């Protein structure tokens, strides 16, 4: 709830339209891999807060990824760009994959840039959330059980 309120305020400050509330029946499910990447609190906020999703989308859209970064990612992660035929033959980039064993850079460039923008947007969201939560004072008895600044941060609700 705190993250939702912080996100609503950030959307208002940025002039973003705060989306309408959603019914519990149409709440976005967050994939298990995203929960692992995001952490449970951020994943829960994104699953239940239209404002948090709007803010994340805006932060992702603001990110720029250089051509050098995209090319570097392609060159360092060639195992992700092996052709299906090369995979069936058991080719790995560590065994000297031939150029024809790799998907051409021009075909995968946009997907790489999108993935890097998404990662940078998530980092920006985490940074925003850490900063925004720094100004929050919880009412006594309503502190988050995992908050290390709380004297009883290992208690359970």
Task: Spell out the blueprint of helices and strands.
Layout (H helix, E strand, L loop, with lengths): L1 H13 L17 H7 L1 H9 L1 H13 L4 H10 L7 H6 L15 H30 L23
Summarize the entry for a quick read.
Helix content is 56%, strand content 0%.
Compute the average pLDDT. 81
Structural category: mainly alpha
Instruction: Name the overall outline.
Output: elongated
Q: Order of SSEs, N→C?
A: HHHHHHH
Sheet-strand content, in percent, reads under 5%
Distance between the termini: 16 Å
Spans of at least 5 consecutive residues whose pLDDT stays below 50 are none
Instruction: Tell me how many strands there are.
Output: 0
- SS field, number of helical segments: 7
Q: How many strands, what sense, and barrel or not for the largest sheet?
A: none
Into which percent range does the helicity of residues fall?
55-70%
Radius of gyration: 21 Å
């Amino acid at each position: 709830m705190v993250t939702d309120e912080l996100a609503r305020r950030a959307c208002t400050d940025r002039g973003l339209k705060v989306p309408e509330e959603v019914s519990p029946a149409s709440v976005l499910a967050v994939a298990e891999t995203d929960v692992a990447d995001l952490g449970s609190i951020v994943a829960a906020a994104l699953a239940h807060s239209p404002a948090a999703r709007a803010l994340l989308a805006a932060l992702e859209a603001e990110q720029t990824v250089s051509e050098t970064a995209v090319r570097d990612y392609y060159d360092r992660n060639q195992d992700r760009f092996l052709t299906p035929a090369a995979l069936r033959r058991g080719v790995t980039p560590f065994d000297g994959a031939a150029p024809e064993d790799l998907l051409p850079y021009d075909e995968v460039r946009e997907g790489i840039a999108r993935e890097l923008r998404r990662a940078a947007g998530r980092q920006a969201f985490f940074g925003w959330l850490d900063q925004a939560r720094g100004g929050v004072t919880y009412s006594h008895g309503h502190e988050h059980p995992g908050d290390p600044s709380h004297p009883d941060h290992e208690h359970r609700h």
